[in-house]
Amino acid sequence: MPIQYYLFLSMALFCIGIAGTLMRRNAIIIFMCIELMLNAVNLLLVAFSKMWHDASAQIVVFFIMVVAAAEVAVGLAIIVLMYRKVHSVDINILNRLKH
Amino acid sequence: MDIQQILFIVLSAIAIGCALGVVFSRNPINSVLFLILTFFAISGHYILLNAQFLAVVNIIVYAGAIMVLFLFVIMLMNLNSDTEPQKNWLVQLAGAISGGILFLVLLSALVSATKTLPVMEQGSNDLGLIKNLGKTLFRDYVLPFEISSVLFLSAMIGAIVIGKKEDKFEDVH
């Protein structure tokens, strides 16, 4: 497999994640799109690790997974707190800093 | 066309289709299930790339732990397609167009830039095994590994503090 195919696949996944982040208003869906972008980057790192025959890239992927797990725990706690306050996960309600 | 190319095309189609399903499905639970399918497809790609350990970790951590957490939260809030907030179509169109334009820009930049890259090595297949990764992790990356434990501890404490009921705080003061 040429490396280009993996580049294009992970670029497509990354751009789908960005489009989803811009299109949706549900905070949980936006969070899931961010996870999708992280996974696209992981896939690209593994492909480059195979290309240069270097295990360091796979260790970096491992650390990205660690950070993503911690981020999800804190982020979902924030979303649950927000739901408890305003009874919605719509991010358009959270515009009080604007006024 | 050998078996590896067929597998690559099938897994890529599953990954991109399910990623589009995450973005476009109205029901948040369907979005979570599509995202789990995407993660399985990406794990298949890891196996094709000889990263067996990462494939297993991806399934256990992402599809197993993180997505179950998402499902729990969505079911706790009782979200479904009726309560789903929708942006108006103009904003949705703008989001889709900007994502597509970013894809086109990256594509056109990388098509010309990656012509000189070397082809992937087909040599030894034991790079992604847990033995090699463990040696690299504990020889070169011990300090980040230990720091990540502090990160996990702080994330755990932070999630508990954020998730607590607020009236308990007011009793203290």
UniProtKB/TrEMBL annotation, chain A:
It is a multi-pass membrane protein. This is NADH-quinone oxidoreductase subunit K. NDH-1 shuttles electrons from NADH, via FMN and iron-sulfur (Fe-S) centers, to quinones in the respiratory chain. The immediate electron acceptor for the enzyme in this species is believed to be ubiquinone. Couples the redox reaction to proton translocation (for every two electrons transferred, four hydrogen ions are translocated across the cytoplasmic membrane), and thus conserves the redox energy in a proton gradient. NDH-1 shuttles electrons from NADH, via FMN and iron-sulfur (Fe-S) centers, to quinones in the respiratory chain. The immediate electron acceptor for the enzyme in this species is believed to be a menaquinone. Couples the redox reaction to proton translocation (for every two electrons transferred, four hydrogen ions are translocated across the cytoplasmic membrane), and thus conserves the redox energy in a proton gradient. Its main location: membrane. It is an enzyme of class 7 (translocase). It comes from Taibaiella soli. One of its GO terms (biological process) is ATP synthesis coupled electron transport. GO terms for molecular function: NADH dehydrogenase (quinone) (non-electrogenic) activity; quinone binding.
UniProtKB/TrEMBL annotation, chain B:
It is found in: Cell membrane. It catalyses: a quinone + NADH + 5 H(+)(in) = a quinol + NAD(+) + 4 H(+)(out). NDH-1 shuttles electrons from NADH, via FMN and iron-sulfur (Fe-S) centers, to quinones in the respiratory chain. Couples the redox reaction to proton translocation (for every two electrons transferred, four hydrogen ions are translocated across the cytoplasmic membrane), and thus conserves the redox energy in a proton gradient. GO terms for molecular function: NADH dehydrogenase (ubiquinone) activity; quinone binding. GO terms for cellular component: plasma membrane. This is NADH-quinone oxidoreductase subunit J. It comes from Taibaiella soli. Its main location: membrane. It is a multi-pass membrane protein. It comes from the Bacteria.
